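Researcher: Next entry: Hydrogenase assembly protein HupF (Micromonospora globispora).
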Amino acid sequence: MPDCHDGVCITCSDVAVAVRVRELTADGLAVVDTDAGPEEISVALVDAQPGDVVLVHAKEAIAVVEKSS
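Model: Predicted structure:
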């Protein structure tokens, strides 16, 4: 269960949130930077790399919105 703040989990709310990928981990997962600190999400549906900004909904990256340079 993710650590939610103020009753809302940034990656589980009803809106998608843009976050930066910090690192890729095993099995299609990644650690991303959120306002509340690092969280683990799935990147199985996108081709994301560290430094990319991804759009996340329900702990799932649904789009890469900015590639790292």
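Model: Note for the record: The mean pLDDT is 87.
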